[in-house]
Every structure is written in C-alpha cells, then in structure tokens.
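new request in #modeling-help
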Amino acid sequence: MIITGERRPPTVPYVDLALQHAQIKDELLEAIARVLDHGRFILGDEVSEFERRFAEFCGVTYAVGVNSGTDALILALKVIGVGEGDEVITTPNAFISCASSIALLGATPVFVDVRDDYNIDPGLIQKAITRRTRAILVVHLTGRPADMDSILYIARSHDIEVIEDCAQGVGAEYRNRRVGAWGAVGCFSLHPLKTLSACGDGGIVTTDDKDVFERLGVLRNIGLRHRDECIRWATNTRLDTMQAACLLVKLRYLNQWTEKRRANAAYYQSRLSGIPQVKVPADRSYERAVYHTFIIQAEDRAGLQAYLSTRGVETAVHYPVPIHLQPVAFPLGYRRGSFPVAESQADHILSLPVFPELDPGQLEYVADCIRDFYQKKGA
Amino acid sequence: MRIPYSYLDRQFADSQMYLEDIRKIVEKGDFTLGAAVSEFERRFAALCDLPYAVGVASGTDALMLALKSRDIGPGDEVITTPNTFVATVGAIAMTGARPVFVDNNEEYTIDVSLIEKSITPRTRAIMPVHLTGTPAHMPDIMEIAERHGLMVVEDAAQAIHASIGGRHVGSWGDAAGFSLHPLKNLNIWGDGGVIVTRSAELYERLRLLRNHGLVNRDEVAIWGYNSRFDSLQAAVANRLMDQVHAITDKRIANAGLFDEAFRELAEFITLPPRPPNVRQVFHTYIIQAQNRDGLLAHLLGRGVEAKVHYPIPLHLQKAAKPLGYRKGDFPVCERHCETILTLPVHQHLEREEIAYIIDCVRDFYLKPVRE
C-alpha cells in the first residue's frame, strides 16, 4: 500500500554523476591505480600531459592546472597585476567566485548588466570604465560565449585586459575559436558538476603568453622556481596528479558528451518554443554553445518548478540571488534596480536537466510536463 | 644498499583497501565535502583533543585561512621563523600581512626570548612552526600572546600527533594548520590540509572561508575561497588515521637509534636538544654535521638519500627582498643552514637500513681514507 504524501524518487534528476561514472568507472580506477604505482602525487606526469592536451583542445599554447576554478580566476587576476585599489568589471548573475576572486585580491568588482543571453552587455561596459579599471572578467555563462569581438574592441581601446571565466564553457566556440583562447588568460573549473570534471575540485588556466605561463607555474607552487628557490610569496594551488589522471580519461569523452548536451538542448528548443509563457535560449550562427546549463525563462517560475517537482522532474535555479544583492556585496553600494535585466532574469530563470546521459523518454517527459503545466493554468 | 627518502612504494604496496574505498566514492560521485570528509574531520579533531577540524585543500591554505578567520590582512604583521618551509610565509603574505622573522633556537623552533622585541603596534599574530615535528615552546608563546592580545596560529604541518606534557600541538593556539601532503607523517595521495580549533566562532568562519562564503546553497555571507578537502583524499586519510600511533612510535624509535649512535660522534655531529616531557614526532631527523657537504656527498654516493631542509633561509630568498632583511640578521638560523642534514627516518625503514645509514656516517668521520 502506498502511503499518501510519500515522495517518489525523481523520474528525471537534475544531474546524475553515477550514470556518467558507470560508463567509465573502470578506466578511472585504472588511471588512479597507475598514479599510485608511480607515486608522483604532486605535479606528476599526468598533470603536464593533461595541461598539454587541454591547451591543444582550447587552441592555445599553454595551460596550467590548479586546485579549483576559483583559484584559476584568482591566479589569472594576479598574473595580470590586479590588486588593492583596482577595479575589475564583471557581471552580477554568475556564480559568486567571479566576484569573490576579485574582492579577495583587494580589488573591487564592478558589475555591468547582462543581455538576454545571460552574458555581459558590451553596450554598457564603457560607462563602467574608470581610471582604476584593470580588467574585464567575461563570463561565458551557461556555456554560451559572450560577445568577444565587441568586448575585446572596448578593452583594447581602453588598454585594459580581458580575462575569460570559462567555468561553464569548456569547448564553446565563438567564430570558430574556442573560449579560453580570446582573452589574455582563460579560467576553467573542473568541479565534479562541470561538463569536463575531475573527481573532486580542480581548475585550469589557459594562455598564449609564455611569460604569463611561467609566472602562473610559480604562483601555483608556493613561489618556487626550483626546489629551493622562492622568487615570490605565493600559495599552493596545484592540480592533483590523481585528478589529472581522471581528467585525461574524461577528456576523451568530452566531445561526445558535449554533442549530447547540444542535442538535448535542441530537443527542448524545438518542443518548448511554441509555449508562449516560456522563453528558450537561441543559438546563433557564429557560435557553438555547450549547454552546461539549459536555462529557460518561465512565467510563474515558482509554480512551474513546484509542478515539475511533483511530477518527478528535478530542476534548479542558477542563480536565485544576483551577486549585487547578496549580503556580502552590501558594501559595494548596489541596490535592487541597479541591474534590471539580471534581476528580472533571477525571478524567471529555471535550469532544466540537460546532462548527456538523459534518455529520449526523459526529455520528452520534461517537455510534456512543462506543456501540461501551462495548459492546466490556461484552462 | 639504496635507501631512498620517499617510502610511498613500501607504504602503499598493498593498495587494495584504499582503492576499494576510492571505487565506492567514484561510483556514488560523492566528491565534494562528502561523508569521508566529515568522518576525517571528526577523527582528526578527536586526535588533537579538540572539538573542531576543517579539511582544506592544502597545508598552506590551512595557515592562510586560519589567519583570515580573524581578518588578518594588509597592514598587519605576523611573527614567525626564517628556517621554515616557504609555505609558512606564503600563507602569511597571501593574506596581505607582512611576515616578521624571529630567529630560531637550537631545537629549530622559534626563540621565545626574542619574540617580544619584534612586537609592534601592527603585530596581530604569532605563527610558531613545529619544525621537524618538534613542538615550539607553546606555554611561553601563549603567555606572550595573551599579554599582547595576539592570535596564535600553530604551523603544525610537520607535527601531527606531537605533544607537550601530553597536550597535543594544535590545541595550544587559537587555531593550527596541518599538512597532509604525500610526504607528511599522515600522508594522502595529493595536496590536502586541515585546520583545528576549539573556538566555535572560528570554526564557523573557517567553514565559510573554505567554501565560497556560502551559508547555504544560495546565500553568500563573506568573500570566500574554494579550498575544500577532496573526498577521495579523505578516504585515504581515514585509512591512515588508524595508523597514526604506529607511525609516530616507529619514527620515534628510529630517531632513538640514530641519537644513540650519534652521541658517540659528538665531536662531528651536534644533535638538537631532546626536551623532556615533549613528544617529537620526527617528520624529519635533522643533525648538524661537520663538513656537511662532504657528508651529504658521501651518503648520496653510498645510496642514502639525505637532504637539506632547508638550504636557503627564508629571509634570504628572492621573495623576501622587499622585507629588507640581510645576511647576519638571524645568526642561529644561518649557522644551521650551513650544517643541517636530514636523514631518512620514516616508519618503513628496516633495522638494517638504519644500521647502514649509521655505518655510512661513522665511516665518513672515522675511516682514515676519504674519497
């Protein structure tokens, strides 16, 4: 007998790492066992091998593995000289670490509102530039590239650097060039829920500049140039050899997984675009979005999310509170109304499950549930 | 005979149980602050007789976050010793504070009699280093800190399980940072660290600081870092927690054998004092040797991988240039740099290997013919 009120497990989870690992578990464990055999746990061969392959994947010359995506951002800002008293322009609708990486260096995050694609609105950047602006930290949110041509033009005209936050954008392309290859430095997260993920925290920084590359190598390894020579005080933020070994396995599947995400997104786009209460993201001819998240904007978002939940569909909101309205940002002096687009999106966005292992039945079910919700509401 | 410094191959020759634990985590995907991390924190706190432990990404982060938990930053000064690993000072400098050096004593820990002279109105904290696994003179340090209202963060990276009068290192100061790096006494398969404290307030701050300042999934209270201890590494650490007592005992026994043998070579070798009522855990076994470079070459030639921790004191590193120190500022530390030598002392050394190392040292000084 079924007890009323008991919740069934979700029919469609938002994400299911166990499914991904079911396919490649043996390969991962073999890779880990090989690291144990050689015992070079700190900056072992797998780290340089992964760095080489990842640089190649992004179409850049160099990559430096670090402990997390947040540390990738901190090191990137540091390597271009951002510090106390500087300002860095970024967007308020991203994950907190794009602002915290700036603030932790003693610099001030300066927010600029976004466009309909959730990325920075280049038309608003100019107004935010002051004498203290050192860089623009561009976020490729949801895995869709920001408008790099416009951003780079503005940056060059004002002689400021561009850093890319590619945490959600691995493999995304803008005019046939991958993200991470546009700015002075590209920063990636390899967190377990990212499209390319380690079995723990990890991050990686990309660049074409040899000098930047060499300084990053020192900055991630407590300032050591050689075993005994410390050329500047620095932290310890190395990508674990074990994680690099796992990443080398997963990198082989990345294109396949990304194509699956894109196909899932395309299905949603075709099924949901006829629902007037739902706004779906659109692909543009000159880009390849990788759909780390598939975010719709929905009328009565709370109602839809609750309804989907009762039907066993797990969804998420990325992110319900824009950074400028977080308690931590209070001293920055923003208020509700400062960024109307980002704020309006925060009230309507809903992330649908889009992970590669979803089967066609699940996708269809999610789309049906959304259609049902608005049909019932309309009735 | 060949005696390498690293012993990882021996330690993990039988890797089955570790890999089995890792397999379970990989299957579940419980990678971020998972059950293995909480278990490790609970057990590590208990080992130190403290209520709280927070697992982080490295020993360096442990020290840096401990200082940040009391908002130590630009304009502040933190007192430490110049004969430590670069990460001690890296951690201080990463907060924006200025490292201030005080010379060390013959035990390789901070010379307590010199601390007060270095305290200025900007001094916020003292970071004593339990170098080699020898506890610094914590009762005296705490007395000075209390008198001046300073925070004390113990750099216990090398001192897991060390104690003074039965009281664990890590439980003396306001907080302490430990390293779990692959060559530490409690060693994982990558970078990792842990902070301990008895303060509920610092504990809450540290949990925020290591995880983006997130109070819950969506609310950010402070600017925080991402410095989490990986679940995979916590699984390895949990297995090794069962072995901590055995590891410590073996290292202490090995050091005892060296001590006994080297007392007969007192003309050539100076041992640091062995303070009573203190448990030194011998992360490193460091002697002061006459003709150190000759002895080092001799040992390496005979297959004994000896090392020097550390050949360049921190105040003379390139990174220290802006601090304005010069040669001669810390005479004890500088003298040690010329004579210190580290011998393998790890828990996997066999009795005959220790005898061999002792013979090699003895031969170098006592055999008439030298190469």
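bot summary: The first strand of chain A starts at residue 62 and ends at 66.
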